[in-house]
Amino acid sequence: MTGRETLVTRFAEQVAARPDHVAVRTPGHVWTYRQLDEYSDRQAAALADCGGGDAGPRRVALLFRHDAPMVGAVLGALKAGYAYVPLDAAYPQARLALMLEDCGARRILTETAHVGLARALNPADGHLLVEEADGKPDPDALPQPGDEAYVLYTSGSTGRPKPVVQSHRNVLHHADAWIGGLGIGAADRISLQSAYSWDSAVQDTFAALLSGGTLLPIDLKAIGVAGLIDWMRTTRVSVYHSTLP
Asked: Can you tell me the mean pLDDT for 131-158?
């Protein structure tokens, strides 16, 4: 890893190296690296089109289901020079509102399924982005290694949820340690069971996408434990990661 690399530049290397390799596979989507790159470009363009004027750190809240568009939105936010703040629709609305106010994000990027909740949460002077724009990321907005990559929130079990902020440089270091420690490569299929609001999802997502592997988001609540073995057999997952309840 060089001192100039970011999550965006490292992902771009994989797109150039294996554009037709499957990057994300879910029951509803099978996207190659080229398709994921194009989708995330459109999300980045949507953020660019809503204008600037951010006071303080550039942050955008994401409200997506556990699926391929969620992965594309994360990359799109990063390409536009934003740190992403994942909002889990399963959380109480009051908690989501608290997180949104605390992080200072004035933009919510979402999908059709969550438009109602996003509108309820959207700050009065903020921007709600649902439709994809056409175009490419603004090259002047691309992040630097020391820029914020994400803002995640603790469970709040001991009180008010607290923000945890990491830079591109730190996420890259952690992802490379995960890739090297497990020997992950382009032939691997890596599970993504954790919600994207958990830190464990960060290492799984970028371990796959920065090594040329295939990311397999799975909703355990939807398939149940009984369906997990069948899913693993069908997808031929090679790296499975889960946390204890």
From this structure: 87
